[in-house]
Amino acid sequence: YPQTTDTSESAWVYVSHIYAKAGTYTMKGKTTLSFRRPIWGASASPNVSVREVLTKVLQCPKYTGDGSNVTYSPIIFPASMFQNCSNLIYLDISNLSKDCVNFAYLCSGCTKLETFIWGGEFIGSSFNFNNAFSNCYLLKFDTMEMPTFTNATSINVANNFFYNCGRDIVINDDEEYVLDLSAMFPNKNLEYVNLGGTFAGCGFTKIILPECSQTKSFMDGRNTFSQCPNLKYLDLNGAIFKHRDFRNAFYNNPVLETIDLTGVKFTAIQYLGGMFAGNPSLKNIIVAEGEYIDLTDVYDTSAPPEPDQSFRNCSSLTDLSMFKMYANNNRWNSTFYG
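The chain above was modelled as a monomer; its predicted structure follows.
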């Protein structure tokens, strides 16, 4: 850590210590720090010994800066900062500079993390949430304290944003655990959101996507909402899916009852296999009156998407008339089986 306010490389002193066991440790004394790299050093993440023993982060250092230089900015860029801290159970980042924009792998692999405090509004316009909370099996957010990204116009990467997040938490039958991204990202011109696997395996009971104008896109659909153990209600909020691959997009959600597809469009479709398969509780697919879910906008008319197993084991569905399928398909294997 730097011992002075000098931010030059010569001011850096790296200190290491091997702790005997996991636990709570107190560092005595007070030091005013001014440095341009994350607290762990140039690697932007804790070293091995810290990852193994760190259990609580009560407050992150506070920084100011314009965020113009990722390597040498005076603000913390939290990407990978707490990745694979296997004993971390509590993390408060509310003191971070609000112009942080890169949250990639922030807590990925923190398998015991239960509490995460965001804090306030982030003011950037373009964000990266790639794997930010992936495999945080026990994490349950206080949904009343979620942050806002008021100026966000672009999410460049959101792959696996909440992948397996909260997978092992217990949700009572009468309990709601709602992820309302439309409140977190209120800008209706949000664009270029890559959703590959974003919510797969997550513990939320209800997910509401941000509202987007019809000219914007949520790009990747494959496995996006698959294998969510508690998910009962899904509102896609008129999303536009422009990526070619929609295999297993809504696959195997055992208690999912309702999907609101009002205004949703799927374009340039190349793969459809297993799209809605494995949802035995699914009863309601909502569309506007007179509206269809058009699955005929194909990427290549000479090789149209094969809908094999697309509705397999959707045993509670009684009406599929809202779907318009591409007729010239050669493979309908088990499309409506079960």
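Helices lie at 48-53, 181-184.
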